[in-house]
Amino acid sequence: MKQASRHYSAIKDAMARGKKRYTLVKDVDDMETGAYDKPLPCFGCGIGWFSFLLGFMFPFLWYYAAFLYFGNYYRKDPRERAGLAASAITAMGFSLVLLVIFAFRWFYYP
């Protein structure tokens, strides 16, 4: 028997034996919901993105989301991390803009 045909027959035997080894663990109808299957709060977009969008009308929501971000709120649900980070970055940018405006008014218009 050639070497290639010997490997082929070994693989074929392993595949035939492997079919009998696997069993169904759970029924398809008995599927449990996972930790992240439930929808996010605030209309399904999460607290972070909701604060980010509403922050353009009420900027203090950015600071609220930044507080949640630095308080590791996203460890409860990792899907919140991106929105909270976006709000924290926006809060930092907004603070920088306010600082520049106040400094400009303080030094140039006494």
TrEMBL record:
Gene: MHM17.20
Record keywords: Membrane, Transmembrane, Transmembrane helix
This protein's name: 60S ribosomal L18a-like protein
Segments traversing the membrane: 47-70, 82-108
